[in-house]
Design goal:
Two copies of one chain form a homodimer. By secondary structure, chain A is an alpha/beta fold. Chain A is built from six helices and 24 strands. In chain A, the strands form six sheets. In chain A, strands 6-3-5-4-8-7 form a six-stranded mixed beta sheet, with no helix packed on it. In chain A, strands 14-11-15-19-18-16 form a six-stranded mixed beta sheet, with helices on both faces. In chain A, strand 18 and strand 19 form a beta hairpin. In chain A, helix 1 packs parallel to helix 6 and helix 4 packs across helix 5. The longest helix of chain A is centred in the C-terminal third of the chain and has 19 residues. Chain A is elongated.
Chain lengths: ~425, ~425
């Protein structure tokens, strides 16, 4: 007897799942390990930038009032009493018609209020003393980078939940974060189900295929910013599967199974969820591929029953699991980023359900186009490896034509999106 | 005495560096660690896909010749002699008017040449035997996924040098790569020079700033796919710097120093290269920021003297170091990917040198726009953390206006580009 399931729209499925999304735990890690992690607190300036008034050039620090009489026909002479590099401070007090040779980034001597660039001066020695002269008036504040003009102590520079890129690393270092509070990587357990599955090292035997979904999901979990835990594969046996899944739930933040969610005779997942007492949020979605994705929650923990079909499994992960992972990491834009792009091919056949076509976007003359990454039969196998996007073709009575604008979800983007569903 | 340097164009600088680019070493790693690494050999199919003729549906495998007389008014009856799930093979031989119940993905019994979908049949029992009937003719080959129709044994599916994404992981598993030959991560040594530098954990003191470039570059190195080795910071002292750099060269594939390349009194790098006997490829580039970037080669190994200014350092890494790393990883598109985008703001002031403006791209209605990520003074500090692109504004006599198409280099993209320079 074939069970009758009622498909729900994709946005409703995502809503049901996001109801159980929550922010996760945090941990303090050394700055040198922070690349690619997610900030678990706002990054704040612990000091003004610049931290002190400083010279933006190699030049001479002087008192601007001493230049009052300088002009093209009247050079004013200054005695150069000291030289300071970046990282040093002046030891001497600067008096009238005295100057300090100052390097880029060095702190202004307190008596000085202007810097004159090296190129505008003439340097010479007389009686063993150093002098320079200039023929130009300076105003107070000329050529000074003032303390706090770029940012002030206490300002929030990068917000909690942001992924740490090289620029954020630089800010963390600048403001003294030698340890960084980041989101602990959520753990995602993976079980592959199906008697037909071989381990990767095994040779092919009649009727069997190698377990590829587990490795694909491992990589998707890593790309999303979490920690995969592969528990192994399960044969199609109810009791074995039930016990294994029940134990696994305790060990992870999220549990994914692949396969066993269809309505075939060996698809045990629905019954396992039932026996566990887990609440099934839905077991059919109005989408292709991935319509038989089943998601349940058990004591607030999400159990994802993804399809055993690789493409369906892939899409199911990106639409439903990724936003949960990113929310655990405090990221405010947990979903795949949605953009629009010009469709490069025809999809004349209407489809009652929304299709997610593995695709590749490309850029030309300031415009974005999208084309399926598995256009013909021989590309089916590699279509996932060549995909950097999922094209979204809403279900309905019409087909889609080359040149139309369509929605596209970016797979390799790190910025994400708040809510891509209309 | 200020040394006179002659700037060379950016593309020439990159050419000079790429002359020393070479492919790096390889290593064999477990499949579960391969995400984000680069293939060091072509990924080939070790078997046909599908590996055998199989059923794409749940249904019955039959001999099509037995359906010759079936039509809407004449149901043909088949005895169901066996049932096979995915991963099993039929044990019995299928004779005339016999059928085998077959699950999605299961191997076709050799006597059968068609599959009829479950929905098109009627199932019943009689005298303890199972039967099904159907009212439709089938042709030989109907509803069969044929061996090798997706790909054939020996086909190259993904090329050497490709970054391993989740789809590639799936292919590696499918084709039995339980160990994967990948490019060994090149090691990139980092020394920060400058007496003004504090360690990150140190409190600020007058005239000093924390060493942020080293952590920024660490992250850039990781993003590029290599292994950073931070050697520490060096005070502005010739002998210390010389000895440290000389030793470090032996330990890494690439050596980066930050600071000390300007023409300030404490900029020792040029002299250190000289004493080492390293060949300086260039010491000034017609670009902003990063004009004082100095690159030398010592016995074929590249020494990158990046500027101490964070933005210049950042840009110098992405333009000059990244393509060397990616070439070591066999990637055929080692440079930052170049696209064109609509300029969102005015840059009225002409600049004699090519500018690389840290920017952020955004998408709207199928078009890409670009805007500087540090538009006003207060954003200068965070402009690198918000940058996902570098806008390229070629030097010349004219400014740039809002709405113009400009070149943009993508920082977070993994596909790269063969040669972005005209």
């Amino acid at each position: 007897m074939v069970e009758k399931r009622t498909p729900i729209p994709v946005h409703e499925a995502v809503e049901k799942i996001m109801f159980f999304a929550s922010s996760g735990e945090t941990e303090l890690i050394p700055l040198e390990e922070c690349y690619g992690r997610f900030l678990a607190e706002d990054l704040k300036a612990d000091h003004d930038v610049p931290p002190f008034d400083r010279s933006p050039y190699d030049g001479f620090a002087i008192r601007s009032e001493d230049t009052k009489l300088a002009n093209q026909s009247n050079a004013v002479e200054f005695e150069v009493i000291e030289e300071i590099g970046a990282g040093s401070v002046a030891k001497q007090e600067v008096g009238a018609f005295q100057a300090i040779r100052i390097m880029t980034g060095a702190q202004m001597p307190i008596q000085c209020d202007a810097v004159v660039m090296l190129e505008l001066t003439k340097e010479y020695e007389r009686d063993g003393r150093k002098y320079m002269s200039l023929k130009r008036q300076l105003q107070s504040g000329d050529n000074i980078s003032f303390q706090g003009e770029d940012t002030q102590k206490g300002n929030v520079l990068v917000e909690k939940g942001t992924r740490i890129n090289p620029g954020v690393s630089a800010l963390l270092a600048t403001f003294g974060y030698d340890k960084v509070l980041v989101g602990r990587k959520p753990t995602v357990g993976i079980y592959a189900t199906g008697t037909e599955l071989l381990d990767v090292h095994e040779g092919l035997v009649p009727g069997k295929i190698r377990n590829s979904n587990s490795y694909m999901i491992r990589s998707q979990v890593e790309r999303a910013g979490a920690e995969p835990i592969y528990f192994g594969k399960l044969a199609d046996d109810f009791d074995t599967c039930y016990e294994a899944i029940k134990e696994a739930i305790e060990k992870v933040d999220i549990l994914i199974t692949t396969g066993g969610v269809s309505v075939g005779d060996y698809d045990y997942l629905p019954d396992i969820y039932k026996k566990l007492g887990a609440e099934v949020l839905f077991n059919k979605i109005g989408m292709r591929p991935g319509s038989v994705t089943t998601v349940a929650q058990f004591e607030g923990k999400l159990l994802f029953g993804l399809s055993g079909n690789p493409s369906a499994c892939y899409v199911g992960f990106e639409l439903f699991v990724r936003p949960i992972i990113r929310t655990l990491l405090n990221n405010p834009n947990p979903h795949l980023k949605k953009i629009t792009a010009r469709l490069d091919v025809d999809f004349p056949k209407p489809n009652p359900f929304t299709r997610f076509v593995r695709s590749s976007i490309s850029f030309k003359d300031g415009m974005v186009s999208v084309t399926p990454s598995g256009l013909d039969k021989s590309n089916v196998v590699t279509s996932l490896s060549g995909a950097n996007a999922l094209m979204v073709l809403p279900g309905g009575t019409r087909g889609y034509e080359q040149g139309m604008q369509v929605d596209v979800l970016l797979l390799e983007d790190e910025e994400g999106c708040q809510w891509p569903w209309n």
